[in-house]
Specification:
The chain has about 1250 residues and is an alpha/beta fold. About 15% of the residues lie in helices and about 20% in strands. The protein contains 23 helices and 51 strands. It has a 23-stranded parallel β-sheet, with no helix packed on it. It has a seven-stranded antiparallel β-sheet with strand order 6-5-4-3-9-8-7. The protein is globular and about 110 Å long. It is a peripheral membrane protein. It is an enzyme of class 3 (hydrolase). This is PH domain leucine-rich repeat-containing protein phosphatase 2.
């Protein structure tokens, strides 16, 4: 049963022998039920899936004896014993096992007599007079020698190298952790001088009686085994000074523990203990005792006698009442940890003072009042995340306070954040040794002048208050960090920069500043400022002259101000500038003097009016350039680009035209984001884009890699639906990309099995968790998935939004201008239920509230080795959408840590374009101090209550049952009939103008059968986009692994010498797009369906194509990439699409709008009469209609609804397919 653990950078699978009562199939069922599967039939189906072997696996044969005994090398060689010639050479079985050389008979190598030669401290030497021969000698006065003659040079070198490592080891230390041992190996007892033995993370069941033979053993680690009871034989090892028996399920400690008089450290964490024997109090030398995460209802009284112990670790027990009188009697205790105990009362009945306690940790309890005035020597107090209404302290020696106020004299660090303080008490300003003060997220309106004039204060965090002004600085101060974001400051003190000469970081974002103070009083500036954040103020271009004095400036953020320009002469003087953010202003150009900033590596200037590409591509260290949402028309490039440029964002520049030469020059860029030109079909023009459209943004921050991925599909499946998601891997980029590529297809598959939102969403997450394979064992990610859908069986149904998430990604819906959170954050700090569940499973929660010190999230996709503490089962919530819903915001942890729900809603309301809104959210998060990856998706919603334009249903001759429409049978078109792709399938040869690279990679979850039915034609019932009709054709979601047919959506244009497909209408121009092809399994059928054999041929040909193999390893615009190895078997990878050497493939553009037939209203009747005289219409899906009342008060849509004409009955006369398309467009 694999259970990976981390050791020295590797992850190992632990295997154990099954108990006689255990049944493998039942164990699999229990495992699947534990991670979230509920339906018994689904559990049976998942149990038969081969991917499950990455999480749980069974072996038929017994475990390899070599693995149990740590055999390093083995073989049959010629061996001679001793240095004299008296012994002859003989063929023997030779094993290098642990620290010994074992020589045995070939026939009876495991049962016969074995000669064991300890090698530690001995010698391994080359025998020069004999080829490929080594001499092994043990240490000591009675040393023995063996000569081993190897057959090949490779064997000789391998044994020499490995044995040399063994002889250099110290005999006193043996590490056998993570070796799936069921008992203590016999060979260990050949080393009588062993002093340190590590047997943690094994499956040792029985009482290791033989351990008492180690007469010199000082340290023994038996943690994370399956002992069940305290091994009494350990109490006979009188030399022990350190004993670790954590996480063994023990209920009692025997009285024999008193024999270990030399014991100094005893770890009993993670067991089921509720009392300790009195004999434990006789261990005079015991200085450290671990009792965390047990079942103690109170502090054991036996601890009074342990005079040598100075730290009490009892986090995660069941202590509800703390008697300070008991602590007073334990005069030796200085550090007390009582986190996560459910403490409700701290009582101090006697007047006796507690003089010895200096550190007290009471975090994550249920305290309402806390009186610690009797602890007069307290230096460090942690009492966060309680429900404190009153706190009383004796603060004469207090140095670090993570709570509310008192009178400290020696305080150096103080955290008063997230309270209800309206003013700072005098004692805070009188603390003469305070170096760090955090008063963020309070209600302060002013800061005392004495505080800013403090000669000890170096870091002041006062953001998210109501400060209106700062007092003037009267003298030079040592302040280095000043954070004043999210206040109401209209100006800064005039003397700020030349009085605070040590100031290196200043953040005054989200204020009302119109000017900044000068850097000095004279021309010579002594400023040491390195980071300056001015985002979200009212600054204009005049403030640029005041920045010149900060010549050490490395980071400058001036986004979302009122800059019309940036003076070229001023920018040239900031030569040390590394990061520049000027987004959201009214700039028309970036000065050419930006080329003087030789260290510049990041330029972000989206959401401006820039029309000329800046001269930055020659900078030697440039890495990231974001000029999206501007007015660029062309790019003038140098002959060669710097190799450091790895991300270029040019989306949102509608007039930008890029030539093939430019694209070829950009081919080396890892992440290149370009617009896909608008080319819409008749169905798409009136489809879901009028109901919703989206924009997204991903920013890597100060990390070297982007660990956030986005899924965005405006047209999901075969009907008017949408799917959006955010995946955050924290520090790994592999799992988010795998989820981005597969989760849309998994959702499509699950929708075929169930229509219950909680079922198909939960199964989507659990199946995606399984599909992560080996990558999901050691890595994990937070995941958020939003699915917009409706019930097609109900004519009056409206759209609903189903949200599912694990981890810390969140979704917020704007309803009536107010934020409505739809997700749940699964972190130990914010979820009491999850904290209790993890504690009951006996997980070790570290002081920073992380499970086993790895993650603070209790639910993730991946991280299988942390099961059952970390689970993949999601939170699922369904919310009906209404006309008051304006937009939806999706973001990762880093976004909502810096931007509140209300600010996020107000920010999006002020921006008309969803893409620009998403960009602004990420930019604000970075300007507010976020240094991690940030991801945001903004989805505008335009769903009205009267959006239904369905016709009344036609009378039928028979009674039809209610419920979902029956699945129609596929029909075959005549060989010569041209097929018109259905717009709902998303496979037309053009791409939606608002479709991003992320969604193109995920829109492959649907394929449509657009072949014509035979038999009499029936006029289809007219339906609106809200309630599409039950189609007469086969619309079925298919996973991304669907093979490409012979007619691809890229029209076969793989290289310049290939001709386009016949029947493709083009005006001669080509549309350059960047596409994530991992999920693009689009099919366009223009004739008879290809046979399975043809599909296999196409698939084989594509796999062997050099152009397709070169695709992998290159990160696309959405950051997704899949490893090229077929044997990796992490996910179902789609068949690769053709690709040019330049890194792009071309798709012919659709016919120019000028070439299409547009019917004026005055000629409409004449056209109808002419069309009636033509051949009958080819039956097909009815064109979707735009609802008559679509409210669009805020959002700008790139494609306004076309005018609609009333639909009338037409004569069944056939017309060409082109005329049919034009006619539908006109209607």
């Amino acid at each position: 049963v694999p259970s990976p653990y981390h050791s020295d950078g590797f992850y190992f699978c632990h295997c154990r022998r099954l108990d006689p009562s255990e049944r493998p199939l039942q164990m699999v069922y229990d495992y699947l039920a534990a991670i979230g599967y509920q339906d018994p039939l689904r559990v049976q189906r998942e149990a038969a899936n081969s991917d499950l072997s990455c999480m749980i696996r069974f072996y038929k044969c017994p475990m390899n004896a070599d693995q149990q005994e740590r055999t390093l090398l083995t073989g049959v060689f010629s061996v001679r014993k001793g240095k004299t010639q008296l012994h002859k050479w003989a063929e023997r079985q030779v094993l290098l096992c642990g620290t010994c050389l074992i020589v045995a008979s070939v026939k009876d190598s495991l049962t016969g007599k074995m000669h064991i030669l300890p090698l530690v401290g001995g010698k391994v030497e080359e025998v020069k007079r004999r080829q490929h021969c080594l001499m092994f000698s043990s240490a000591g006065p009675q040393a023995q020698t063996y000569f081993v003659n190897f057959d090949t040079l490779a064997d000789y070198q391998r044994w020499h190298r490995q044995a040399s490592k063994v002889v250099s080891q110290t005999i006193s230390l043996v590490d056998l952790s993570c070796y799936s041992l069921e008992e203590v190996p016999e060979y260990l007892f050949y080393s009588q001088d062993l002093t340190h033995l590590n047997l943690r993370h094994n499956f040792i069941l029985s009482n290791p009686l033989l351990l008492s033979r180690f007469s010199q053993l000082k340290s023994l680690n038996l943690s994370h085994n399956r002992l069940g009871v305290f091994p009494e034989s350990v109490c006979e090892i009188l030399t022990l000074t350190e004993l670790n028996l954590s996480c063994n399920g023990m209920n009692t400690v025997p009285a024999q523990i008193g024999n270990l008089q030399s014991l100094q450290t005893l770890s009993l964490d993670g067991n089921q203990l509720n009392f300790l024997p009195e004999e434990l109090g006789g261990l005079a030398q015991l200085s450290s005792l671990g009792l965390s995460f047990n079942n103690f209802p109170h502090i054991p009284g036996v601890l009074d006698r342990l005079s040598g112990m100075d730290r009490l670790a009892m986090a995660g027990n069941r202590v509800e009442t703390l008697e300070l009188g008991i602590l007073a009697r334990m005069s030796h205790l200085k550090n007390i940890d009582l986190r996560l105990n459910g403490l409700r009362w701290v009582k101090s009945e006697a007047l006796e003072a507690v003089k010895q306690v200096t550190q007290l940790d009471l975090r994550d309890n249920h305290l309402a009042t806390l009186d610690l005035s009797s602890i007069c020597s307290l230096e460090i107090l942690h009492c966060q995340r309680n429900q404190l209404r009153a706190l009383t302290l004796s603060g004469f020696t207090l140095r670090t306070l993570h709570a509310s106020s008192n009178l400290p004299n020696q305080l150096t660090q103080m955290d008063l954040s997230r309270n209800l303080l309206e003013y700072l008490p005098d004692w805070v300003c009188d603390s003469r040794k305070v170096e760090v003060l955090d008063v963020t997220h309070n209600f302060l309106s002013e800061l005392p002048a004495r505080l800013l004039s403090s000669l000890s204060l170096r870091k002041l965090l006062a953001g998210n208050n109501g400060l209106q002004r700062l007092p003037d600085l009267l003298d030079h101060v040592p302040l280095e960090v000043l954070d004043l974001q999210h206040n109401k400051l209209g100006e800064l003190p005039e003397s700020l920069f030349y009085k605070a000469l040590n100031l290196k970081y200043l953040n005054v974002s989200a204020n009302a500043l119109e000017i900044i103070p000068p850097s000095s009083q004279s021309e010579e500036s002594l400023s040491t400022l390195q980071e300056l954040y001015l985002t979200g103020n009212k600054l204009n271009e005049n403030c640029a002259a005041l920045l010149v004095g900060h010549q050490n400036l490395r980071v400058l953020h001036m986004a979302y101000n009122q800059l019309l320009s940036f003076p070229a002469s001023k920018l040239s003087k900031l030569e040390l500038l590394e990061e520049l953010n000027l987004s959201g202003n009214k700039l028309k150009t970036i000065p050419s003097t930006v080329s003087s900033c030789k260290r510049l590596h990041t330029l972000i200037a989206h959401s401006n009016h820039i029309s000329v590409f800046p001269e930055i591509l020659n900078l030697p260290e440039i890495k990231l350039v974001d000029l999206s949402c501007n007015e660029l028309t062309e790019i003038l490039l140098p002959d060669s680009l710097t190799a450091t440029l790895h991300e270029l964002d040019l989306t949102g520049n509608s007039s930008l035209l890029l030539e093939h030469k430019t694209l070829n020059l950009f081919s080396h860029i890892t992440t290149l984001k370009l617009d896909q030109k608008p080319a819409m079909t008749a169905g798409d023009s009136l489809g879901s884009s009028t109901l919703w459209n989206h924009g997204y943004s991903e920013m890597s921050g100060q990390r070297n890699k982007l660990c956030v991925s986005v899924l965005a599909v405006d047209r999901f499946g075969d009907s008017v639906e949408a799917a959006y998601g955010v995946f955050d891997g924290d520090r790994n980029e592999e799992v988010p990309r795998l989820l981005q590529c597969t989760m849309g297809d998994v959702l499509s598959e699950e929708l075929l099995h169930s229509s219950v939102d909680s079922v198909y969403m939960s199964n989507t997450f659990l199946t995606s968790h399984r599909k992560l394979g080996m990558a999901g064992q050691k890595l994990g990610a937070s995941a958020l998935l939003c699915y917009i859908h409706h019930e097609p069986s109900e004519l009056g149904s409206y759209f609903s939004l189903t949200v599912a998430n694990v981890g810390s990604c969140q979704a917020v819906l704007c309803r009536d201008g107010q934020p409505l959170p739809l997700s749940k954050v699964f972190s130990l700090e914010q979820s009491t239920e999850e904290m209790d569940r993890v504690k009951l499973s006996k997980a070790i929660i570290t002081e920073d509230n992380k499970v086993s010190g790895v993650t603070c999230c209790s639910r993730l996709l991946g991280c299988s080795y942390l099961s059952p503490w970390v689970l993949p089962k999601p939170w699922v919530c369904t919310e009906p959408l209404c006309s008051q819903d304006d937009f939806l915001i999706l973001g990762n942890r880093a976004l909502f840590e810096k931007v509140s729900y209300q600010e996020a809603v107000c920010t999006v309301q002020a921006v008309r374009d969803p893409r620009a809104a998403a960009k602004k959210l990420c930019t604000l998060a970075q300007s507010y101090g976020c240094r991690d990856n940030v991801g945001a998706v903004v989805v505008s919603l335009n769903i009205g209550e009267d959006s239904c334009t369905c016709e009344p249903p036609h009378a039928s001759t028979g009674t039809e049952p209610r419920g979902p429409p029956p699945t129609p049978l596929p029909v075959t078109a005549p060989p010569g009939d041209p097929a018109t792709p259905s717009s709902s399938s998303g496979i037309a040869s053009e791409f939606n103008s608002e479709t991003s690279a992320s969604e193109v990679g995920s829109e492959a979850g649907s394929t449509a059968s657009d072949e014509h039915p035979s038999g009499p034609t029936v006029r289809p019932e007219r339906r609106c986009s809200l309630h599409p009709a039950a189609t007469l054709f086969l619309f079925q979601r298919q996973p991304s692994c669907t093979p490409f047919s012979s007619n691809q959506s890229d029209n076969g244009l793989d290289s310049d010498d290939e001709a386009p497909l016949e029947g493709v209408i083009s005006n001669g121009s080509k549309l350059e797009v960047e596409v994530d092809i991992h999920c693009c399994a689009f099919q366009i059928r223009s004739g008879p369906a290809a046979s399975p054999k043809d599909h296999n041929l196409d698939k084989t040909h594509l796999k062997k194509s050099p152009s397709t193999s070169s695709l992998f390893g290159k990160k696309l615009s959405n950051g997704s990439v899949v490893a090229p190895e077929d044997s990796h078997n992490l996910i179902e990878v789609a068949v690769e699409a053709p690709k040019k050497k330049s890194g792009y493939f071309t798709a012919p553009a659709q016919q120019d709008p000028e070439d299409q037939l547009v019917v004026p209203p005055s000629l409409e009747q004449d056209v109808r009469e002419q069309l009636r005289g033509q051949s009958p219409m080819v039956p097909g899906p009815p064109p979707p209609f735009t609802p008559p009342s679509i409210r669009d008060p805020v959002w700008d849509h790139p494609h306004p609804p076309a005018p609609m004409l009333p639909q009338r009955d037409l004569a069944p006369n056939p017309i060409p397919a082109l005329q049919q398309e034009v006619y539908d467009t006109a209607l």
